[in-house]
Structure formats: structure tokens, C-alpha cells
Design brief:
The protein has 80 residues and is mainly alpha-helical. The chain has three helices and no strands.
Length: 80
């Protein structure tokens, strides 16, 4: 994977906390992983917003409880 150098401005207290967890030599990787995770979440939320309600009134429609159960299952598979 190609890397690009960038300059970020972060609060000093946040940098200290990152370094305490990742170490000063692991800072870039830690921040990159955190940003990648946030991007994945934001893309998913955008997809959910764009498709909300499209199955309403069809045989594929799910109740709120069914959706919650599905999401819980997917999350447990992702973390396991």
C-alpha cells in the first residue's frame, strides 16, 4: 500500500493518550486504523440513510426488532 505524508493538528492531550496506547512510533498506524474505522462507519450510515424504507410494504420488510437482531449478529461476527 502506498503511503502519503500528511500533517494533522491534534490537541496535545489527545496525542499523549494515543502515544500511551500505541507508543510514539505507532502513532501513524493507530491514527490510520482509527480513521479507517470511522470511514467505514460513516459509509455504512450513508448507505443506511440512502436506503431507509425501500423495503417497506414488501415481503422483505423487517420489523425494528428484526433489524436490531440482525445488526447484533453482524457485529458479533465482525468482532469474533
Amino acid at each position: 500500500m502506498a503511503l502519503a505524508r500528511t500533517n494533522l493538528t491534534l490537541p496535545e492531550s489527545l496525542v499523549r493518550e494515543i502515544d500511551a496506547v500505541a507508543g510514539p512510533r505507532g502513532r501513524s498506524r493507530y491514527v490510520a486504523e482509527a480513521v479507517a474505522q470511522r470511514l467505514k462507519r460513516d459509509r455504512l450510515l450513508r448507505a443506511v440513510d440512502a436506503t431507509a424504507g425501500v423495503l417497506r410494504g414488501t415481503r422483505h420488510a423487517m420489523s425494528r426488532d428484526e433489524v436490531t437482531a440482525l445488526i447484533d449478529t453482524l457485529r458479533s461476527e465482525e468482532s469474533g
